[in-house]
Structures are given as C-alpha cells and as structure tokens.
Amino acid sequence: MADTTAPGLRVAVLGAGSWGTALAAACARSHPTMLWARRPELARRIADTHENADYLPGIALPADLRTTADIAEVFGHLQGAVRPLLILGVPVAGMEQACREVAVGVARHGMRDLAVVWTCKGLDARTGRLPHAIADDAFAGAAAISTGVLSGPSFAREVARGLPVALTIASASAELRDRVTEALHGGAIRVYGSEDVIGVEVGGAVKNIMAIACGIGDGLGMGANARAALITRGLAEMTRLGVALGAQADTFSGLTGLGDLILTATGDLSRNRHVGLEIGRGRALDEILGDMTQVAEGVRCAPAVRDLARRCGIEMPITEAVCAVLFERVPPADAVSRLLARDPKVEAPGVSPPLRAAARPPGGDAGGPAEPDPRHPGSGASGSGGGGGS
Known about the structure:
The protein is built from 16 helices and 8 strands. By secondary structure, the chain is an alpha/beta fold.
C-alpha cells in the first residue's frame, strides 16, 4: 500500500552495493528514503543492523533508512510523494533490466511524474550503447518518466562517512536537476547541474579505462611523470570521443571529466586502478577479477569504447593499448613500448607542425608572437585547443 503522507520529495534507490547504499544514506538524512536490495537476506540484515556489512562494513547507516527486496514496495513508497525520485545504483550490465522493471512499475502504479537517475559509468558491452540510450529504449513512450545521470569524482566509502564530495547531475530536465539537488545537496555534498548528458557519460566511461592504464604504469614502476602523461593524454582521448558524439568540450575539464579521471587514476579505493596495478605486477586478469567483490567497469567497457572510437574515426591509442593488454595477452611492458614508439604529434591542433619545426612565426620575428595562420583557426599567441593523438 502506498504511503499517503505525501512529502514534497521522496527517494528510492535500486541497488544496495556500495554506491547505492551511500547515496541512500545521504538522502535519508533529509528525506524519506527506501533502499532496494535484490537479495532479501541483505535487505533484512541492513534493516536489522543499520549497516551494509557486505559493501560498506563498519559504517552506520541512518536509522530512518528503509530497506526492502520487494520492487512493489518501492513503488508504493514513491507513489505517496509529490516529487518522487528513483536512483538506479546498478552497474551498466544490469541497467536494461532495471529500466524495464521501472517502466512496468510506473505503468502498474499509474505514476504520472517520476524522475529516474542512473549512476553507472560505462558502455553496454554487447551493444556499445551509453546508459542514456539504454534508458531511452526502455522508457520509450513513457511520458511520465524524466531521466538524467548522476556522476562525479566520488568514492562510496568516503561519501558514506560524510566526507566532502562534489557531484554533477546532468539532464535535459531542469526540474529533474532541481529534484536531485534538493535530495542530495547540503552538508558535505555539493551538487552541480549540467545539460550535457553525453559528455558526463563519456567521461565516466573513459576515465575507468585510463585508470587501468595508470595502474598498469604504476605497477610497472614507471613513475609519476608517466602517470601524469597518461592522465593528460587520457583526457585528450576522452574529449575527442565525447565531442565526436555531440558532447560539450568544456564538460571534460569539469568534475565528471578531469575530476573523476584524477580520482580514479590515483585513488587507493579505485577498483579500476587496482586492476591495472595488479596486471602491472604480473597477475592474470581472471585471477584479479576473481578476487574482487565489486565490478571494475573499465574492464567490461574497454572493448566497447575502442570499437565506438574506431567507428567514429577517433584515435584512442591508450584505450587500444589497455585492450591489447587485457584481452590480447600483450605484455604490459610491450604495450608501453608501442605507445612510446608512436610518431611525434602536435599537442595543440592550433599550432601547425611546420611552424613548430621552424620555431619561427610566419611574417614575424622568432622571438615575437605568431600571426594567426588561416589554415589553422586559433593559431598564434592566444591559440588553444584540445589534444591531438596521444
């Protein structure tokens, strides 16, 4: 039965992994919130102990956080709200099923205004779709559902502990962005809005692959210089692919691009970095994944990102190298050698290669500012732009 207290905002989170639980805990401090776990025994343990010992051991959850394994109970909880919000805390591999369950629940309960937000980062390994495309297909014809993606540099355990974090909610719907901001913003959490769903999703997918690359480099003992180069050129790959897909270039210099890339490529809590570290130290991928209890999305989506880039005609050499190591049994040191053996590139496309080679601007003195080159818009003293091939 639906709760009829009808608060302004009510939240449900599907998925009781570390991130879903952390978000549910954050929302529960200010709004009625329900956390759905697929396993009934996990839902019962969380309800009894106010702790998710499977994914966030040692962290106390709010006493007001309700838990269930019954999807009908989730919709009963949301049905009583003026502004219901449903957060999908599931990995990309589970998103299609989750969206279809949501579509059925919305129709069955006659809901007229549901905001649905996902948190997964990656591409569908089978179809190469970004998460918003999966949602669009599942919710086709469901006018009652508005959608968006919540992302940013965030480790679940730190958020659950109440440590500071900044997140981005991207959606074409201003009302949805406001709803998510109301649910989460405050205390140690800052929420920023964006309309660039594609950019946020591409950043979330590619940064995991770059974190594997950085982990491999660190596992090989390549040093801080190499890590900085991988992060920077990884950002260039991310930006090139995103812009080709219709994203805004500025998105990749923000929280969900550079911010998330730095965190995932350097943080000790990063699952994708962990995979890379262990590979660099000589362990086999199957062995590494077999020891992990949570998903490293970069492993699953790396081939899909590589294939998408190839279809778009986008050069992503670091992504190619990671795939070669993960799936083609290329030794990590050999993959690094291949990257280093690539032809020299111009970092900024606004600077022409002949100009750089001559170290002399056309029509000017060697020590003075370059005149703009009409063949390369943006060239000259103030020229700027994205990276070329990594």
